[in-house]
Amino acid sequence: MPPEEKAASRNFIQQIIDADLAAGKNDGRVHTRFPPEPNGYLHIGHAKSICLNSALAREYDGKFNLRFDDTNPAKEEQEYVDAITDDIRWLGADWEDRLFFASDYFDQLYAWAVQLVEAGKAYVCQLDAEQMREYRGTLTEPGKPSPYRERPPAENLALLEQMKAGEFPDGSHTLRAKIDMASPNLNLRDPVMYRIKRAHHHRTGDRWCIYPSYDFTHGQSDSIEGITHSICTLEFENHRPLYDWFCQSLGIHHPQQIEFARLNLTYTVMSKRLLLQLVNEKHVAGWDDPRMLTIRGLRRRGYTPSAIRAFCERIGVAKANSTIDMAWLEDAIREDLNEHAPRAMGVLRPLKVVIENYPAGQVEQLEAANHPQKPEMGTRQIPFSREIYVEQDDFMEDAPKKFFRLSVGREVRLRYAYFITCTDLVKDSDGNIVELRCTYDPATKGGNAPDGRKVKGTIHWVSAPHAVNASVRLYDHLFAVEEPGKAPAGGTFLDNLNPNSLELLADAQLEPALRDAEPGSQFQFERNGYFFVDPVDSKPGKPVFNRTATLRDSWTKNELS
RNA sequence: UGGGGGAUAGUUUAAUGGUAGAACUGCGGACUCUGACUCCGUUAGUCUAGGUUCGAAUCCUAGUCCCCCAGCCA
Fold first, then answer.
1. Average pLDDT of the residues in A101-122
2. A171, A244, A337, A539 - which has most CB atoms within 10 Å?
3. How would residue A559 be classed by pLDDT, with cut points 50, 70 and 90?
4. What pLDDT, in 10s, does the model give residues A365-381?
């Protein structure tokens, strides 16, 4: 279909906004926000929300805020604030000068609480946590009113002041909205607006001993900031009536809450609790372990912001729960890196090859393209000599006919170098192949035969005396099953861990230019995959590589089937 | 067994009463100095049963299945 005929497909949120704009709501403004709680690290699921909110603002020429929902000092820390802002900036979402904290609004929130008390819409309750649960009722039975529900406003006001002044112990009093104890929506059964909690807040210090609840904070914070569309995940759908109730009761700007389905991915878990457990119990090296789908983990794995953004765009947004195939994420990073990563040669599991008819001590510099499809990325020189390394997988003693690599009597091309023919192999006393003997054809320099003969296979190699010895980490899915969250009978999700998710290669041999690879830079090791120079563990002259993704491999795949 | 949401190829997602389309995956092939990339082809779908209509994924009725809610977490 010609592009001009193809109407851009609109997701349900865009359709809502289109309709709002057409109806003249919000004076034509679109203003979104991302509201993380600073109690953990961001993961790929948050990236979906960040990309969604910031992309919407950009698309409609609107604004995007970053606001920390920091109403629970017991769990929140400055460390997380720093990590989260850093990750969001890295992702490329721009909140300009609009970085806010719900705690910035504590005074206003308190004033609004007073307003509701005076209006007879809120009261101080002295039920303890357990009693409150009993009074709340169940899913099928209505709750019953708290004995403190009918306290007159003046009394409530005095009590609230005392709560704020620190005259009561933690947990002894709450401020509750007076809504409907019989509502089928339990969130409306007089929800808590303020609780007493003596904890040091990362921003307000010890100024407060009472803290507002999520429900009494979120909508009003959106309102203060002039948010037009407050986009959150599905589990808050049941809270929307409350969101609306507070905005209406207070008579303030009323943003529209819209819920979408959170991201799920195969072969991973996404809940903060499980992620935390993986870190605490040291099943991974930390929040930035490259196998973690935290933003920090993805960064260290070598994922790029644009790949993550492309992924988030592609997966779409809807209200139906879904689980995206991990292959989509891998596809996104391959697409980006295939385009941008310079090529290099690296032998992961070396097998020594001696080219018997190549003069000992001779070294030639051969020219190699940095990107076969992009000449503008230039070329580099690679040394060639009598002894080289090739990949162990590129030799097979009893090779099937369609194995287009090395075997005794077979000829292959060494990429950018010569055709070589394997003549013999050397084994150690245990029968392991330790060396190959080959001959080369001097006429094929550069990789082409003047007589026009073809070879089916081209393999990568590294000159042994020039090679850089490096450690390389091969990463695979952290979990071995598609739905690791589902624990096997009698076990936990940990039983689903993939025992082979990390393979350490201490003896990889790389082409010499890689010795000084810049930490944080990326390469495609031809025929192997995309690799990222680890910014933490690399030392000058001693790079450490993390495999970001493999290349697609239709050969191995066929063999396995 | 209360309330709120949801259901379109294997997986995501379009089509908003008018030819069910795309991407990822799978499979087959072409190309190739990366068994990569690229290109071509191909399998495969409207939860079920009724109804309205010339015409239904879309509207109506009745079911089925899945998710969320009983924190002083967010």
1. 98
2. A337
3. low
4. 999 999 999 999 999 99
Is A148's CB less than 7 Å from nucleic acid strand B?
A: no
Between the alpha carbon of residue A408 and those of residues A55, A425, A463, A527, the distances in Å are: 57, 7, 21, 22
CB atoms within 10 A of CB A455: 17
Provide mean pLDDT across the span A328-351. Answer: 98
Backbone φ and ψ for A473, nearest 5 degrees, come out as: -110, 125
pLDDT digit string (tens) for A120-174?
999 999 999 999 999 999 999 999 999 999 999 999 999 999 999 999 999 999 9
- Is the CB of A458 within 7 Å of strand B? yes
For the purposes of burial, counting CB atoms within 10 Å of the CB of A255, is it exposed (0-12), middle (13-18) or buried (19 or more)? buried
pLDDT at residue A284 greater than cutoff 50: yes
pLDDT at A290 over 70: yes
Q: Can you tell me the distance from the alpha carbon of A480 to that of A498, in angstroms, rounded to the nearest whole number?
A: 4
Q: Report helix, strand or coil for A152.
A: coil
Q: Is the CB of A554 under 7 A from strand B?
A: yes
Give residue A557's pLDDT: 67
Q: Per the structure block, which two tokens stand in for A36?
A: 């993380």
Residues in A 484-503 whose C-beta is less than 7 A from nucleic strand B are none
In degrees rounded to 5, what are phi and psi of residue A250?
-85, -15
Element (H, E) at A487: none
What pLDDT score was predicted for residue A488?
Answer: 85
Residue reference for tokens 């930035």:
A288
CB of A255 within 8 A of CB of A228? yes
Looking at this protein, which amino acid is placed at residue A129?
A: A
Nearest nucleotide, CA A414 to C1': B33
Tell me the β-bridge partners of A431.
Answer: none
What's the burial of A378, exposed, middle or buried (CB within 10 Å: 0-12/13-18/19+)?
A: exposed
Element (H, E) at A529: strand A529-533
Token representation of residue A163: 């709560």
> What are the DSSP E strand ranges found in A356-492?
364-369, 379-384, 387-391, 411-414, 419-427, 433-440, 458-459, 461-463, 468-475
How far are the Cα atoms of A33, A69, A73, A192, A420 from residue A215, in angstroms, in the given order?
17, 11, 16, 8, 71
Question: CA A188: distance to chain centroid?
Answer: 35
Which carries the bigger pLDDT value, residue A558 or residue A108?
A108
pLDDT at A555: 87
Q: What percent of chain A lies above the pLDDT cut of 70?
A: 98
Q: CA A382, CA A220: separation in Å to the nearest integer?
A: 63
Q: Which two tokens stand for residue A48?
A: 């979906």
